[in-house]
Prior knowledge:
By secondary structure, this protein is an all-alpha fold. It has helices spanning 2-11, 18-30, 48-59, 67-77, 84-98, 106-120. The longest helix is centred in the C-terminal third of the chain and has 15 residues, at 84-98.
Amino acid sequence: MLGRVFYATAQADKVIRPExxxxxxxVVKNVxxxxxxxxxxxxxxxxxxxxxxxxxxxxxxxxxxxIINQVKSFKSIHTSLFTKNIIELIxxxxxxxxxxxxxxxxxxxxxxxxxRLALEx
Length: 121
């Protein structure tokens, strides 16, 4: 889910820039790897799934639509995963992605606002 969220964040202005990709990889490496010790079926840190999903969507030039509703739905089913700390980390990551190239534009600000509302409800 987070890979899709961060891809949609980068895609909010219809252009995914190399700086946004680089920022995501840095945040995964420097922040998300330390969040928990969960591993995937290949015994890799589950945080790498963020990058794997993001890269897949990017490589296949997929347009992510309806992510805000998907976040709301996922959160309603998995409420316990959305601690205050995780919500802030999601928002900080999204903000870092959008501001990695230049200041946030209107479409990015709208997306960030919608994401925050979805996470905090």
